[in-house]
Amino acid sequence: MITAIFILVALLALWGDYKAWRRWGSRHSIAIILLILNILPLIVSAITFIITDNTQWVMTLASWVTTLYTVTTLVRLMFYFGWFICRSFWLGVVVGGVVLAILTNGIINTRTDLTIKQVTIQNSKLPTAFNGFRIAYFSDLHIGSLLNPEREISALADTLNSLNADLVLFGGDMVNIRHNELTESVMCHLSRVTAPHGKYAILGNHDTGTYIKDTVSTPKCCTINQIDSKFSQMGWTLLRDSTVFVVEGRDSIAITGIDFGDALLEYKHSFATPDNFEAAALFSSVPDSLYNIALSHLPQLWHPISEGNYAELTLSGHTHATQIALEVCGVRLSPAMLMYKEWSGLYSRGDNSLYITDGIGCVGFYMRLGAKPEVTVIELTR
Fold first, then answer.
1. 174, 220, 355, 362: which has the fewest Cβ within 10 Å?
2. What CATH number has the domain spanning 114-381?
């Protein structure tokens, strides 16, 4: 569906470009400019598929080219709408200008406008001692996609500490491509994050080295081992198909982290529920009577988790809400709706809840429209 929409938008842009070229007297300079704008996706393909490896500068260049294509295409479409459909050149200029301002704001301001969301999860299974327990949750940092990692992560660390949460959880995709995005300065800021009951994390698909082409010099296991080691150095506990028990007084709850192992990698760009996810084995160490929180980078795993009543709360990320989410008449809309059954926010099924964060970083293009980067404060109540 998303591919079909992309092709339709590209064809509409080509149609508008042809009409504009004809209206402007078939000028060659205009034709060359429009041709360059239309072949930008091919340039991205050349950058990411022809060049030997996805190094940091390659991914940065590809993201900027994709951002340029997104902005110029949408602005031209709105301009052509006013000019050719509404038959007013100046209306096209105004509408195109407004869209340009919105998109530019998405790059400069919204992309880094960290927002705090408050969510309350009620469940009678929660032990009395954990009534009012607060969790600071965030995901999808994608350090390599941040334009100023040190400054942005420093602000994130300050925000997390200001929340005074009992526990901090991270839902995967710490890096964008490779482990060396976790520089000493970045690790220093993430080390500053503190919580009385600790800080726990899981791996996402981007943390596994799966997007590194040169697997000879940098095998996947090397990336994962390095990230695991760096989490430990920062004072974070990485949960890899493992469970920890958080104790408060005489009560306790469980936190189970789902690893992004080889069995899930084939679903990293899929919207289907993995049929090879062995939920029963993963949660076998958690007593049925215990309140459990599952950390799953893929939101689709909530279906087998909730069907088996393995966890009362599942926390996910991954979707980013496609970095585009608009609210119309109280209804939140996003291209992510065309891909995922659950794509952002809170979902419930009986006593089982799922929360999907819109994440922090960007993938593909340096822009967020409506889907602001977020840290979520989850309060557990009985």
1. 220
2. 3.60.21.10
Average pLDDT of the residues of the chain: 93
Hunting for tokens 């991205």 — which residue is that? 44
Taking the mean position of all CA atoms in its chain, how far away is CA 88?
Answer: 39
Length of the chain: 382
Task: Render pLDDT for 288-316 as a digit per residue (tens, 0 to 9).
Answer: 999 999 999 999 999 999 999 999 999 99
Q: What is the pLDDT of residue 40?
A: 86
pLDDT of residue 152: 97
State if pTM tops 0.85. Answer: yes
Q: Based on the number of CB atoms within 10 Å of its own CB, is 253 exposed (0-12), middle (13-18) or buried (19 or more)?
A: buried
Phi, psi of 241 (to 5 degrees): 55, 45
**What burial class does residue 81 get, using C-beta atoms within 10 Å of its C-beta: 0-12 exposed, 13-18 middle, 19+ buried?**
middle
Mind giving me the DSSP string for 40-86? HHHHHHHHHHHSSS--HHHHHHHHHHHHHHHHHHHHHHHHHIIIIIS
Query: Given the structure tokens 């709360």, which residue do they identify?
Result: 313
Terminal Cα distance for the chain, rounded: 41
Torsion of CA 239, 172, 4, 59, to 10 degrees: -130
* Domain ranges (residues) in the chain: 2-108, 114-381
Contact 375, 363 (CB under 8 A): no
Strand partners, 292: 254
Side chain identity at 320, as an amino acid letter? H
d(CA 326, CA 339): 16
Exposed e or buried b per residue across 123-133, where buried means at least 16 C-beta atoms within 10 angstroms of its C-beta: eeebbeebeeb
Looking at this protein, which amino acid is placed at residue 191?
S
C-alpha closest to that of 175 among 199, 210, 151: 210
Across the range 344-367, mean pLDDT stands at 96
Contact, 352 vs 134, CB < 8 A?
A: no
Rounded CA separation 104/98 (Å)? 10
User: What residues contact residue 15 under an 8 Å CB cut-off, 6+ apart?
Assistant: none
Which segments of 273-363 are extended strands (E)? 292-295, 313-316, 326-328, 331-333, 345-349, 352-356
Could you give the residue ranges of the DSSP H alpha helices within the chain? 2-23, 28-38, 40-50, 56-80, 89-108, 149-162, 184-191, 220-233, 262-265, 279-282, 302-307
